[in-house]
């Protein structure tokens, strides 16, 4: 009698080969290390990663935290916003990243609709990211209103990174891509930050918050803050890698710095290959059996 084939559970297969395969495993970054870095005044870096080679390369480069962002909705699946991406779509990407990162802390980003309804919904979703995706912790968007969810996950052994300021999953409620916490609304950002810390979050992302407000929040909190469009006073920084390394083209948010032109490199490589095939110069004798 044959049993239906089940996927191998996370961590049972051989590790995917990486550029650093064969060298001893570096010490894993853990949530408490980020807090210790804050206490020592050391900055840390976080990037998105959605697949094996990005994860292995960023890990080798010493990026401390890899976020399997719900921004995969735009940057992997081609949607216009982060709203349509599902848990079932994100979990295989999370698994690819957690299998490929040797040192970095891997964060699973809970997508829209998978945790807002209740603390129980949040726990069941987050547990899937940990069990099936191999994530070391999860991220969710929201401040004061997410306290019950953060408390539930934390009590259940799931470390939580919060995300306040501009929260893309609420872009329709917030009225578009807008800086949050200007003027008198800065009190809201500080209240959200203190609420998520009080609920047990180990870190908090602040997105599109004025630099002085982000600085004030960073000094007020004992947990590390991670900025994206939140100035230089945060304890860490995060960017979407396709933005920072120039795979994505077109208009970029002001907070993006472009470190490379991956789009240009890929475009030229693909053109050269197409030209070679058309001209009959690839494959050569050295590529032929
Ligand atoms: N590729 C990518 N990069 C991101 O940073 C990102 C995603 N995708 N997907 C999910 C969210 C959406 N995010 C966005 C998207 C656009 C702006 C933007 O256009 N900002 C403008 C307007 C700011 C304002 O009006 O004050 C800017 O100039 O920064 C910001 C954040 C951040 N996240
Ligand atoms: C931009 C970061 C913070 C994010 O949440 C994502 O990429 O999904
Ligand atoms: Mg996100």
TrEMBL record:
It catalyses: (6R)-5,10-methylene-5,6,7,8-tetrahydrofolate + 3-methyl-2-oxobutanoate + H2O = 2-dehydropantoate + (6S)-5,6,7,8-tetrahydrofolate. It is found in: Cytoplasm. One of its GO terms (molecular function) is magnesium ion binding. Gene3D superfamilies: Phosphoenolpyruvate-binding domains. Mg(2+) binds at residues 70, 109, 141. Coiled coil: none annotated. Pathway: Cofactor biosynthesis; (R)-pantothenate biosynthesis; (R)-pantoate from 3-methyl-2-oxobutanoate: step 1/2. The active site is at residue 207. Its EC number is 2.1.2.11. 3-methyl-2-oxobutanoate binds at residues 70-71, 109, 139. Pfam families: Pantoate_transf (PF02548). Binds 1 Mg(2+) ion per subunit. One of its GO terms (cellular component) is cytoplasm. Residues 1-24 have a biased composition (Low complexity). GO terms for biological process: methylation; pantothenate biosynthetic process. Residues 1-29 are annotated as: Disordered. Keywords: Cytoplasm, Magnesium, Metal-binding, Methyltransferase, Pantothenate biosynthesis, Transferase. Belongs to the PanB family. Homodecamer; pentamer of dimers. PANTHER family: 3-METHYL-2-OXOBUTANOATE HYDROXYMETHYLTRANSFERASE. Catalyzes the reversible reaction in which hydroxymethyl group from 5,10-methylenetetrahydrofolate is transferred onto alpha-ketoisovalerate to form ketopantoate. This is 3-methyl-2-oxobutanoate hydroxymethyltransferase.
